[in-house]
Amino acid sequence: MRRRGASLMLLPLLALAGCGGIQTIGGREGREAALIDDLFTLFCIVTGLFFAAVMAFLFAAYWRRGGHRADRMPDEGATAPRDRGLRIALFAWTAAVIGGLMGLAVASFLTDRSLAYSTAAGRPVVSIELIGNQWWWEARYHFPDPSQNFRTANEIHLPTGSAAMITLKANDVIHSFWVPNLAGKQDLIPGRVTDIVLTPTKVGRYRAQCAEYCGLQHAHMALDVTVDTPADYARWLAAQTRPAAAPTTPQAIAGYRFFMTRQCSACHAVAGTPAGAGVGPDLTHLMSRRTIAAGTLPNGTGPLHAWIADPQGVKPGANMPYIGLDADELHNVVAYLETLK
Ligand SMILES: [Cu+2]
Questions:
Q1: Which of 93, 131, 238, 295 has its CA 20 to 30 A from that of 73?
Q2: In terms of domains, do 142 and 221 share one?
Q3: 30 CA from centroid of ligand 1 (Å)
């Protein structure tokens, strides 16, 4: 029994172990997340106080009745003089409950206004169209000068201190965009356009997860979110806007030929080449991403071989088919992909 008690006491610690890190509720690395976190704290304090008061009254009543001697009937004559005090206490309690609930309602309303304010007045500097697909994310960066627009996949970069307007669309089924460290959730609904504003305040790397069950590989639909200083962000933008450099080694050139003449270019785009399809992720700057297949594998030579040799083995059900390259073709294609810096 002592042992059981000790392990029970460890439970809350275990629950707390989930706090902190790149994907955590209660994170305060964005203006919106901090607003929601403040509201949550207020709710915990107010409801906690009421809970404590109810428990205190309960124990006081039990104690006054004489504890376990519940069979002792109350003496009606003896309690009568206390009625007045009891009535006042009941009125006070009712007033406190109404006041508490109204306070929480007003606080929720103000937080909501504040979140909406960031949409209206934040004058978003960054404009991203994020499209949910089974089971990967397409990101389209939009600029006042459309010649600077570019696409990437399964990752976004944001600068600190600016509001980013994320426009959300779904290509197939409902998905949900959720970077808990930065803001609340927003659904992506086929045929509708929704949006959410993120105003990151702290440089770092965060993980977004599709938060609406969307089929077989729902759990492997992550988005890598990097918050940069404005200078780093500008550097990243400049690199992303450039088209892909032409391959130079014989192996990479052979891989390029395979890519452009076989199935790959029917589904993928590489800016600056004839490949312009949008069925799968844009690969123009594939090697600048930390993961492939929406967070399923880390990016690198080995995982790329594994993925292209057998995408269905890595992510069963994914919309990239088994192609059946021979060993040379596989090495060549990966050599080409590795030039896409
Ligand atoms: Cu999804």
A1: 93
A2: yes
A3: 23
- Rounded to the nearest angstrom, the distance between the alpha carbon of 69 and the centre of ligand 1 is 59
Ligand 1 centroid–CA 169 distance in Å is: 11
Q: What is the predicted pLDDT for the residue at 337? A: 95
Is the pLDDT at 77 greater than 70? The verdict is no
Separation of CA 131 and ligand 1 centre (Å): 10
Q: What type of residue is 56?
A: A
Q: Which helix (H) or strand (E) holds 38?
A: helix 31-64
Dihedral (CA of 287, 291, 292, 298) sign: positive
Domain boundaries, position 307: 250-337
Residue 136 CA to ligand 1 center (angstroms) comes to: 7
Residue-wise pLDDT tens digits, 255-267: 999 999 999 999 9
Tell me, yes or no, whether 75 lies in a domain. Answer: no
| Distance in angstroms (rounded) separating the CA atoms of residues 39 and 131 | 30
Q: Which amino acid is at 280?
A: G
Q: What share of the chain in percent tops pLDDT 70?
A: 87
**Residue 175 falls inside a structural domain:** yes
Measured in angstroms, how far is the CA atom of residue 209 from the centroid of ligand 1? 8
CA of 165 to the centre of ligand 1 (A): 20
- If asked whether residues 187 and 138 sit together in one domain, one would say yes
Q: What is the pLDDT of residues 194-207, one digit of tens each?
A: 999 999 999 999 99
Query: Ligand 1 center to residue 62 CA distance, Å?
Result: 52
How do residues 99-131 score in pLDDT, each as one tens digit?
999 999 999 999 998 887 655 555 667 999 999
Gap from CA of 32 to ligand 1 centroid (Å) = 22
Asked if 203 and 146 sit in the same domain, the reply is yes
Q: What is the CATH number of the domain that holds 176?
A: 2.60.40.420
Residue 32, domain member (yes or no) = yes
User: Are residues 154 and 224 in contact, defined by beta-carbon separation less than 8 angstroms?
Assistant: yes
Output the pTM of the full model: 0.85
Overall number of domains in the chain:
3
